Amino acid sequence: MTADPILATRGLVSGYAGSRVLHEVDVAVPEGGVLTLLGRNGVGKSTLVNTIMGLVPPMAGSVRVAGQEVAGARPDAIARLGVGLVPQGRRVFAPLTVAEHLDIADRLGRKGEWTRARVIDLLPRLGERLGNRGDQLSGGEQQMLAIARALLTNPTVLLLDEPSDGLAPAVVQQVGEVVREVCAAGMSALVVEQNLRLGLSVADRVVVMQKGSVHWDASVDEFRRNRARAEQLLGI
Ligand SMILES: Nc1ncnc2c1ncn2[C@@H]1O[C@H](COP(=O)(O)OP(=O)(O)OP(=O)(O)O)[C@@H](O)[C@H]1O
């Protein structure tokens, strides 16, 4: 891993209609590594992800992708610079088929090693469901589609916002395997997870947020050794 992070925020302030949610947040995703972001409900994890992606405009601070400043840029420009988003709630389009979702990502996204064939090889279930509409998919299949769509844009860093959200335990395990496989293939990622086991299984570093601020930035080992602190910050 190099010293320069592939994605870094510095002093990032953000929020909605005058109310601040993020207070000078510094996080860094190591190149080829995974940063897992933990925190109780409502601490600002999705706001951080959406601000990095340009969906929520930053009020102050910096967001750098591969050394380039992107704070204030539009989401499509940020995507073209190599940031891929697997959004909370998956955002699959009900009337579009799996194939149509993949076509759109293929057409609009960057070209690279994540081709449609490779994505379907990783997620064979999607290959069997190409003609099915978004609203005919299970939650797990929708999550796989959200991941496939993001991978097809060939990001240099992937933002995954609670990929296990709302899924049954067996399906969480399948999604976990996919996330681990993608990360093991060298994808840099920021992973927001409520599922501690999944989050830690992919992480190189762990950041815990509380009330819009980073309260703990630790290696996975350090996090595991300080169980009491983890429990106190996460309310578990
Ligand atoms: N679109 C929005 N407009 C106004 N306030 C919002 C909006 N989205 C989130 N908030 C508020 O911002 C704060 C942080 O929410 P956010 O969704 O970022 O937290 P989170 O840590 O991702 O929580 P969760 O785990 O529940 O998704 C909350 O107080 C929430 O009510």
UniProtKB/TrEMBL annotation:
Gene3D superfamilies assigned to the protein according to its UniProt record, in alphabetical order: P-loop containing nucleotide triphosphate hydrolases
Molecular function GO terms recorded: ATP binding
Entry keyword annotation includes Protein transport: no
Span of domain ABC transporter: 7-236
Source superkingdom: Bacteria
Keywords: Amino-acid transport, ATP-binding, Nucleotide-binding, Transport
Pfam families in UniProt: ABC_tran (PF00005)
InterPro entries associated with the record: AAA+_ATPase, ABC_transporter-like_ATP-bd, ABC_transporter-like_CS, BCAA_Transport_ATP-bd_LivF, P-loop_NTPase
Entry's family note: Belongs to the ABC transporter superfamily.
Name of the molecule in the record: ABC transporter ATP-binding protein
Source species: Ornithinimicrobium faecis
